[in-house]
Design brief:
- The complex is a heterotrimer of chains A (122), B (169) and C (371).
- With 122 residues, chain A is an alpha/beta fold.
- Chain A is 14% helix and 25% strand.
- Chain B has a single domain, classed as Alpha-Beta Plaits, CATH 3.30.70.20.
- The two termini of chain C are 33 Å apart.
- The chains are: A alpha/beta (122), B alpha+beta (169), C alpha/beta (371).
- Chains in contact: A-B, A-C, B-C.
């Protein structure tokens, strides 16, 4: 649910809507907002299942610190959705366990690409 | 209202209010609209003292002092209501009409009520105790987004009504 | 390699205040922050601040933040966002990673203002989606304008719990209750009074026994505590909620200071381990200053004042202010800090801050250093 009007923050500014995919569903988001915010706006708060016991997890700190909110984004696992901004056409998937990195054709190249896809924040 | 007090109930007891220098006397209340300051703990804060155009609120150099109302200097203008960061100042006019008192309080929830609406007036514990008629909704820029709502309620609630139930949402 | 005179790690209220002070004196300043926007927790504070005119009382937190950002721009302070300081490359060079690339920042003086992070308490169901920090709720509603849930139980009656409860209602959620384990409300009575008027029951001597739900929060069982904090059997109450917020204190984010070699002391009333510093905010590592919640969990107003103190001290050390000018400035700041730390809510913190300085002097004499 979005906060459309607020005594202090005022009315929500006219957003730039983009579409992204979550587990096969197409959802709307405001461009640049954290993935977690876009999902919560749709009432979705279960983001992943833990590796050993398959327990559900979602956001906790919402500030990029606790790593509870990680999901697989464009094939890359362990992305902190509370700080990663939504981009048009992004593919977000519930992460089951530790997730899997995409196949490494050229280990050196792939590793560098993954770093640039948000390695310092994910 | 409980005798327990602000640290247990989250709002001051009648005793704490009577003992605080910010609550006006019965005599002053009967003379017309007056500020009612319900700030009973020593916290570092003094905007009430410097916004009052009549210097009718005194805090002093030590800003943890409880604000003291100089009740005879208070003209009931209500500027202090929105200025208090703790939303602890109200205005009460016990003789607004033969049957009603007018209570003015700070309010920061949307939607604001409209003038003329009937709403549920609540006490310090949030319990609806009476119906209130919205007489005025002030949203001056100087109040920085804190609306000041004036509610006409039956006279006997002059000491108890301090807000209205939130609407919508 | 970025060369700068003063590197400030952390662009929250303390870091920004330090940058403004030092840059105003003429120093070349670089602020490094891991977030994509500066301001730390300041922009989430949509309520009017307390204090006196000098403390900008009556001004909303985010407006104070906006003013500081304008000053930062005018003073041409270099601000590196999305930048994480992860190591000390050598004596005075910080290793920073930004978007997958490593950058080194060499600085003559450093100010660390990394703030604090939220604590947790554990109970069955605490890991269910829907159990979040109070700060998390505040970020979602005030920065991203998204409600994390509609029916909330708040744990903790300090100012954070009281204020975030109020802000959740402003955003359109219902706060069904606030529970506090201690037998009294910790935060300001005026903050509590606001939420009581809005119909939120505050249950002192209560805690959460468990949170229930299959895949996410469906409800919480609250229980009363006796005078020894044991659950009182038969006192359980169930609240149907979809969100449980924890406002149970903060702990300083001290890892970087440890990495940089600072000496610490343990003060529970300040949030745990805090770096030792002198009256000028300088730590046991010469040329390294600290400010804000990192040095003891307080509030934004004190963070800004400490930031100013650190900024002035670093500027003096570089020769941008002479000692006389600096002393006048520092005295004004110290008086404002004392005012914020006065009264029954501030005394404990005031004493703790003095203990930090005393213990710093203690280790200096031990080391044979001049205090």
């Amino acid at each position: 649910m979005r906060v459309e009007d607020h005594a202090i923050l005022g009315k929500m500014p006219e957003p730039q809507w983009v579409e992204f995919e979550f587990d096969g569903q197409t959802l709307q988001a405001i461009e640049g907002e954290p993935i977690a915010a876009a999902l919560l706006a749709h009432g979705i708060n279960i983001f992943r299942k833990t590796p050993k016991t398959g327990q559900p997890r979602g956001i906790f700190c919402a500030i990029g610190r606790c790593n509870d909110c990680v999901m697989t984004v464009n094939g890359v696992p362990n992305v902190r959705t509370c700080v990663e901004p939504v981009k048009a056409g992004m593919k977000v998937q519930s992460q089951i366990g530790n997730g899997q990195f995409p196949e490494l054709a050229h280990p050196g190249e792939e590793a560098a690409k993954q770093d640039n896809q948000g390695g310092c924040r994910g | 209202m409980d005798a327990n007090g602000v640290v247990i109930n989250g709002y001051p007891s009648f005793e704490e209010l009577r003992n605080s220098p910010g609550y006006p006397s019965e005599e002053r209340l009967c003379k017309g609209a007056v500020a009612v300051i319900e700030c009973v703990q020593e916290i570092p804060c003094d905007p009430c003292a410097w916004v009052c155009p009549k210097q009718a609120i005194k805090v002093g150099g030590d800003i943890t002092n409880l604000p003291r109302l100089v009740e005879d200097d208070c003209i009931g203008c209500g500027i202090c209501i929105a200025a208090c960061p703790g939303q602890a100042i109200f205005m009460v006019d016990v003789n607004y009409s033969p049957t009603e008192a007018l209570i003015s309080f700070p309010y920061e929830y949307v939607p604001f009520p409209q003038e003329g609406d009937t709403v549920n007036a609540v006490d310090r514990a949030g319990c609806p105790v009476a119906k209130g008629r919205v007489v005025k909704v002030r949203t001056a820029a100087v109040n920085d987004r804190t609306a000041v709502i004036s509610l006409a309620v039956p006279k006997e609630f002059a000491h108890t009504v301090r807000s209205m139930q939130r609407q919508g949402g | 390699m970025i060369n700068t005179e003063i590197a400030i790690v952390g662009g929250g209220p303390a870091g920004l205040a330090a940058a403004i002070e030092a840059a105003s004196a003429g120093a070349q300043v670089t602020v490094i922050d891991e977030n994509s926007r500066p301001g730390g927790q300041l922009f989430k504070q949509i309520h009017k601040f307390f204090g006196s005119k000098a403390h900008l009382a009556g001004v909303r937190g985010f407006e104070i933040g906006n003013r500081m950002l304008r000053q930062i721009q005018d003073l041409r302070v270099n601000v590196c966002l999305d930048s994480v300081v992860y190591a000390l490359a050598d004596g005075n060079t910080l290793a920073v990673v930004k978007q997958g690339q490593t950058v080194e920042v060499r600085a003559e003086k450093m100010i660390v203002a990394t703030g604090a992070s939220e604590n947790v308490i554990n109970f069955p169901g605490w890991t269910l989606p829907g159990v979040i920090g109070a700060g998390a709720a505040q970020t979602m509603i005030n920065v991203h304008r998204v409600l994390p849930g509609k029916r909330v139980l708040m744990i903790g009656s300090g100012n954070v719990g009281l204020i975030v409860s109020y802000q959740l209602m402003q955003a359109g959620a219902d706060v069904v209750a606030l529970v506090e384990a201690l037998p009294k409300i910790n935060g300001y009575g005026v903050h509590a009074a606001k939420i009581r008027r809005a119909g939120v029951p505050i249950l002192v001597s209560h805690t959460v026994r468990e949170v229930q739900g299959k895949e996410n929060v469906a409800g919480a069982v609250v229980v009363r505590l006796d005078e020894r904090f044991r659950h009182v059997p038969g006192s359980e109450q169930f609240f149907a909620v979809d969100t449980v917020c924890m406002a149970v204190g903060l702990s300083p984010l001290s890892e970087l200071c440890r990495l940089l070699g600072c000496q610490f002391t343990y003060l529970p009333e300040m949030g745990g381990f805090v770096p030792l510093h002198d009256a000028n905010m300088e730590t046991s590592v010469p040329g390294l200053y600290v400010a804000g919640d990192l040095t003891g969990v307080e509030e934004a107003s004190t963070a800004m004042e400490e930031g100013r103190l650190a900024g002035v001290s670093a500027a003096v050390a570089l020769g941008y202010l002479d000692s006389a000018q600096a002393e006048v400035r520092k005295e004004e700041i110290r008086i404002r800090l004392e005012n914020l730390r006065s009264g029954p809510f501030g005394e404990g913190r005031n004493t703790a801050k003095q203990v930090i300085i005393q213990r710093y002097q203690g280790i200096c004499s031990q080391a044979g250093k001049e205090a």
